[in-house]
Design goal:
Layout (H helix, E strand, L loop, with lengths): L2 H4 L1 H15 L5 H25 L6 H27 L5 H19 L3 H19 L5 H26 L8 H19 L8 H7 L2 H27 L5 H23 L4 H21 L3 H32 L15 H14 L6 H16 L2 H28 L17 H19 L1 H9 L12 H29 L7 E3 L2 E3 L1 H4 L3 H9 L4 H9 L5 H43 L6 H21 L1
Antiparallel strand pairs: 1-2
Helix pairs in contact: 2-3, 2-5, 3-4, 4-5, 4-10, 4-13, 4-17, 5-6, 6-7, 7-8, 7-9, 8-10, 9-10, 9-12, 10-12, 10-13, 11-12, 11-16, 12-13, 12-15, 12-16, 13-14, 13-15, 13-17, 14-16, 14-17, 15-16, 15-17
Length: 610
């Protein structure tokens, strides 16, 4: 297809970035109006190209357009939310926002590896300034860590790109280049142990940016890996790498959710859940099959929806209390009913509860792992089920501490949930959680079949629908029981609790997440994992710091050795030699003539031997 059509969304993004820079004097309402128009144009241009020119696009161009539509959709909703979230966002924020979106679109729509890498670097730079936007100490520290780690990942990615033309000539180099690309894409995606920038960056960035990081930017890293793995290296070229990828997917999945369980900071908790869900996506991709790729892409789509919704919901809680600590929330279900409803939908979706969208994609990934028919894939399936159970436990705790239980937090700001800048993004994302859960056939046929048109019809969608139906029925029954119990319990009087004659308040006696943290942390076997993580042994950034400190000390010792043992002693011997040579320079012409003649005779004798 003509490249100019594919670059239309990128052109619009950069144009509106430039327009925001030029129009720095216009008022805030006018700025958000034309910014939303620009974001809508980006989305519509992406959809237009995908629909109208679909017959001209190759399968991988269609995959690129799928990512472009996903990025455009999430960025539009985050832009709308930005207007409500922070009234101090100025032209610099919107300029960087559009530049960032344009860079992400450039990565997924580039037809050449050179342009791909240029846009990759532009994405890294613009996202760095967005993390730094609020200019707090936390933002400064997180942004430095982010740029160092992603910059290192970019170097690995560049090395892999430069070696693409050599992968057919030498098998050893092929493994090395694949490793480089895996590291480069893995850093941006947040795979363990390349993840440590993510739980620092997501909390430090403005909440709309945290949402777009989790909902869109992490998916660009996955896109990069899929592009190289399926088009250049081919999935079946190395069974060893498939197993390594599956192992890293399992470790990422399980470690992410275990670390999320003990977090007090809601944004940090959601960041670790992002890492965990990326593990699910990589499990699907690592199967190297059509069903596996379908499951990975489906979960990628679902994760973008429910994780963006969770971050935006967390932003409402943060604005209400001016705190990210879960212990300062509680009892907000009556104060923020709409946020409670949408946050609950997203929580059930990420936990894989039927009939929400997370259940469908996790089911497909499990089916792909079963069809792989290896001991390793069966272990991965068991780990994925365990991960879903722990995710559900984590979000039961979050819902209890945030919206149910006793209100412990002081409300610093009253939130108007009727604002269209809340209702629109929250409502659309919630509908997405439900729609892609109840209509898996629609999603498979209309979205994924044009991209993966081989092997996916072996998927048993009817069984998914049956399980979803029973899931609906179960949720309906639970909801009716909840209503009945709520009315029934109102008849009872609240009892006072006394200890040693002193009455204890509900805030003390009520269950909260801090008890849950301690219980999980003290669990045998898991405690050792937390202790290892606390020491920074899973943090590649800290390990690199220690390694650099060690190499710095070694370099200093080598420098001292060279200076003391080689330079000083060498200088001493050179002075002795030069003193001997100086004895030949006595100013006597006959002696100089003698040495010249002796040298000529020597050279002639050597030449005669040749």
């Amino acid at each position: 297809m003509d490249i100019k059509f594919l670059f239309l969304p990128i052109f619009i993004s950069f144009s509106f970035s430039f327009l925001n820079l030029l129009s720095y004097k216009i008022n805030r309402n006018l700025r958000i109006t034309f910014s939303i128009i620009g974001s809508i144009l980006i989305l519509f241009s992406s959809i237009y190209i995908f629909k109208i020119y679909s017959f001209q696009l190759t399968n991988w161009e269609k995959l690129s357009m799928f990512f472009a539509i996903l990025i455009s959709s999430i960025s539009l909703l985050c832009l709308i939310y930005s207007y409500w979230y922070n009234t101090s966002f100025n032209f610099i924020y919107y300029c960087l926002f559009f530049f960032f979106v344009g860079s992400m679109l450039g990565v997924v729509l580039s037809s050449s590896l050179i342009l791909f890498y240029i846009f990759w670097e532009l994405m890294t730079i613009s996202s760095f300034f967005l993390v730094l936007y609020e200019n707090t100490d936390e933002a400064k520290s997180a942004s430095i860590k982010y740029i160092i780690m992603t910059g290192a990942g970019s170097i690995f990615l560049l090395f892999g790109i430069l070696g693409v033309n050599l992968i057919e000539t030498a098998n050893l180099w092929k493994h090395l280049f694949f490793l480089s690309i895996f590291i480069g894409a893995g850093v941006k995606s947040g795979l363990i142990p390349l993840h440590s920038w993510l739980p620092d960056t997501y909390p430090a960035a403005p909440t709309p940016i945290s949402a777009i990081f989790s909902g869109a930017m992490s998916k660009v890293g996955i896109y990069a890996f899929i592009k190289f793995y399926y088009t250049i290296f081919q999935p079946d070229w190395s069974i060893v790498w498939q197993n390594i990828m599956m192992l890293i997917g399992m470790v990422t999945l399980l470690s992410g959710v275990l670390l999320a369980l003990i977090q007090h900071d809601i944004k940090r908790l959601l960041a670790y859940h992002s890492i965990s869900q990326i593990g699910y996506i990589f499990l699907g991709i690592s199967c190297g099959t059509s069903i596996g790729l379908l499951g990975g892409l489906y979960h990628l789509l679902n994760h973008s929806i429910f994780k963006s919704l969770l971050f935006l919901g967390a932003g409402v809680l943060i604005k209400t209390t001016e705190s990210r600590e879960l212990e300062k929330y509680g009892g907000f279900s009556s104060i923020l009913p709409f946020t409670f409803l949408t946050f609950s939908i997203a929580s059930l979706s990420i936990s894989g509860v039927p009939p929400f969208n997370g259940f469908v994609s996790k089911w497909i990934i499990c089916e792909a792992l079963i069809k792989k028919k290896t001991g390793f894939s069966l272990l991965a399936m068991i780990i994925s089920l365990l991960g879903s159970a722990l995710t559900l436990a984590s979000f039961v705790k979050v819902l209890n501490d945030s919206f149910l239980g006793v209100g412990k937090g002081e409300i610093k700001q009253k939130i108007n949930e009727k604002s269209p800048f809340i209702i629109l993004p929250f409502g659309i994302l919630s509908i997405g959680c439900i729609l892609f859960g109840i209509s898996p056939k629609l999603a498979v046929n209309k979205i994924f079949y044009p991209v993966i048109n081989e092997g996916i019809y072996t998927l048993n969608i009817k069984l998914i629908n049956i399980v979803s139906f029973w899931g609906y029925l179960f949720i309906l029954i639970v909801f009716l029981i909840y209503i009945y119990i709520s009315k029934w319990t109102q008849k009872f009087k609240e009892k006072k609790v006394f200890v040693g004659g002193e009455m204890l308040s509900r805030e003390i006696t009520d269950f909260d997440g801090s008890h849950f943290y301690k219980t999980v942390y003290e669990t045998g076997g898991v405690k050792e994992f937390y202790e290892i993580e606390k020491k920074g042994l899973f943090d590649s950034y800290k390990i690199s710091e220690k390694f650099l400190n060690f190499t710095g000390k070694v370099s200093e010792k080598i420098e001292m050795f060279v200076k003391d043992e080689i330079y000083k002693k060498g200088r001493k011997y050179m002075l002795i030699i030069t003193e001997k040579i100086r004895s030949f320079q006595n100013g006597l012409l006959p002696r100089y003539i003698f040495w010249v003649i002796a040298g000529i005779v020597f050279i002639m004798e050597v030449l005669k031997e040749w």
